[in-house]
Amino acid sequence: MSLYAVILCGGRGERFWPKSRRTLPKQFIALFGRNSLTQETSARIRPLCPPERQLFVAPAEFEVVLRRQLGPRACLAFEPVGRNTAPAIGLAAVYLQRQDPDSTMVVLPADHLIEDRPGFLKAVRMGAQLAQQGLLVTFGIRPDRPDTGYGYIQLGRKTAGKARLTAHRVQAFKEKPSPARARAYLAAGNYVWNSGMFIWRVDAILAAFREFMPEFHAKLEEFATAIGTRREKQALAHLYRGAPSISIDYAVMEKADNVACVRGAFDWDDVGSWLALVRHIKPDSAGNVASGLFVSKDSTNCVADSDSGIVAALGVKNLVIVRAGDAVLVADRKRLGQMKQLLAEIAGHAVGGRHL
Amino acid sequence: MSLYAVILCGGRGERFWPKSRRTLPKQFIALFGRNSLTQETSARIRPLCPPERQLFVAPAEFEVVLRRQLGPRACLAFEPVGRNTAPAIGLAAVYLQRQDPDSTMVVLPADHLIEDRPGFLKAVRMGAQLAQQGLLVTFGIRPDRPDTGYGYIQLGRKTAGKARLTAHRVQAFKEKPSPARARAYLAAGNYVWNSGMFIWRVDAILAAFREFMPEFHAKLEEFATAIGTRREKQALAHLYRGAPSISIDYAVMEKADNVACVRGAFDWDDVGSWLALVRHIKPDSAGNVASGLFVSKDSTNCVADSDSGIVAALGVKNLVIVRAGDAVLVADRKRLGQMKQLLAEIAGHAVGGRHL
Asked: Over the stretch B227-286, which tens digit does the pLDDT of each residue have?
């Protein structure tokens, strides 16, 4: 088998406004260090998948930024519009099938942060072995807190591995839980966060599409005949016109019975909001976390991110303060879940939309 | 008599950081509308004092900005260093005495905001009449709230005027009061805010300097002999080397017995902190006041000032948010009194000082 990485670059990253914008969402910005999350994701999987076996899938509008960040030789597949993960994965699968029918694909969202590369690669290797058995493999993350922002996977019988890297049957997928339920999951020990990373043989995932999304699968087969021809672009537009906007979890994983889960020993962060900075930057003695020049007086538990100049805080607490380009955001830490509503407010303002 | 305006431009305006900076303090920035407070002050007194009878006194470091804002023909007197109001007024007095020994001078801080120009000019006219009797006249402002940030003047017997424009003997100058005392002053009715504006004959104020600051007065007389000669600059440096840093209130007004007060009917704001914006800009339905593009969601009683781009607030309250040049300030409204300490913190930071 050949292992290919399919890196999904379709996120909108609204919760990182104003550093992320419509034209430059989260996966393309350097939140930590010098490289964008997409560049980091590419570098992380490189030991198993060299650049010629990395395929980036993104809405067409991100073509310029992707080429700029990944260079002219990157393999890119552009969706006419973003349609959640199932269509993007289907599209990648038919491209890979044409290139190498025997291939295995590891699916990686471009906007996750993993610092333990060896641990991550070990888990991928174990997943690749399971995939050879025709299983649809998902990667589960050991929860270290009762987070209510993630879906959970209830693990069944262990089928392989030892110590902190094990493979399991999957008993059930669980929606984002209530706080009480999240605490129960954490205490139970056999629940993991659903990371949105997967590995499977291309023929296995296409068989699953055939079974659970037969209409879309038929269109995928139709599209496959157009790949490499003059009809390709038109066929792609046709494929996406009818494509449902649905996640691969919901469309396939929760329905299939040949599902397995690798529980890895690596760290993982989906960098879901500005508070992710708190998990990756050392706080000062007042609990403030800052990227960029931040000076404070009598201020506690603030998160500051500034692309230039200085951010100064006086007598405030529990705020997220971001300065990026032409915009400043000041938000209560506990209210970051309402970023979407704030952005709607900005969009509704006479001249606000140009700042999104 | 000829009436001259002496406009004092020596304030540091630290409380308006980051819009005001060391090199561009409050009096030189356009806080409201298009013109700086200094330009507004000049325009306001113009009907009584045309430009050739306006003298601006400022520390030498502000020469460039003053010339830029006032044009090449403005009459400027530069202090080697800022030394509070008494030396600046003494300096202006000897310059004017040389020009016109019979002149009267109205002293106006450059950083106050008065919108009712006719009301202001009426009060100045009344003050000018009193000044002809040799009185040292101060302007008192009717308090509309028990503000603890101002000194107060206890008015004595009415000596002239009617309705809302009256002249009084001065019974006592009062330091910035406690909240309880401020409420008592407001209720009593015969207390006014000490505006820091004055009018007097030049010979009267110089006589007062002779009486209450004899050493400094002697130096002023010495300096006067050097005006217009090659020794002037050196003599000015000498004058200021020994000049005490003291306010005219403390040095003269509180000691003199030929003091009168004009209680005007005009509005007045010394624009002492960012909260001054609340008094001059109409709030939105959530009590937010903004200058520049401000969009908010579930945010109340905030003050936002932005020189460009957009400021967005989510779920916050009682904040002052300022974006100016390369700096962002986020402060609790009630903590603006500690701006000095915040700026000290910034000054102490390795690269913070360059942002002051």
From this structure: 999 999 999 999 999 899 999 999 999 999 999 999 998 999 988 889 888 888 899 999
Give the pLDDT confidence of A277-309 residue by residue, as tens digits. 888 889 999 999 999 999 999 999 999 999 999
DSSP B84: -
Domain boundaries defined on chain B: 3-263, 276-355
> Torsions phi, psi of A289, nearest 5?
-125, 130
Q: Which of A331, A341, A349 sits opposite B316 (nearest CB)?
A: A331
Rounded to two decimals, the pTM is 0.86
- Name the CA radius of gyration of chain B, rounded: 21
User: Which of A314, A351, A355 has its CB closest to that of B335?
Assistant: A314
- Cα separation of B252 and B247, whole Å? 8
For A319, the closest of B312, B316, B346 (CB atoms) is B316
Positive or negative, the CA dihedral A21, A24, A28, A34 is: negative
Gap between the Cα atoms of A120 and B326, Å rounded:
40
Cβ within 8 Å of B, A 144-163: none
- CB-based contact, B346 to chain A, within 8 Å: yes
3-state secondary structure of B215: helix
Domain B3-263: top CATH class:
alpha beta
Does A309 lie at the interface with B, CB-CB under 8 angstroms? yes
